Amino acid sequence: MINQALTSSLRSDIVTKFTVISNQMKKYYGKGLLLLISEKWLEQPPQALDRKV
Length: 53
Prior knowledge:
Blueprint: H1 2-8, H2 12-38
């Protein structure tokens, strides 16, 4: 939805600001993910049971 708004926006200053904010968000989320992994807070998704017949 945001990408559609950015591509149809005629104001280049808004597109630039959203791009900067998006890059900052990616860095923030990346640091949070590294923290989760290093502290072993990240849960492993459910795995399939090993059902040998």
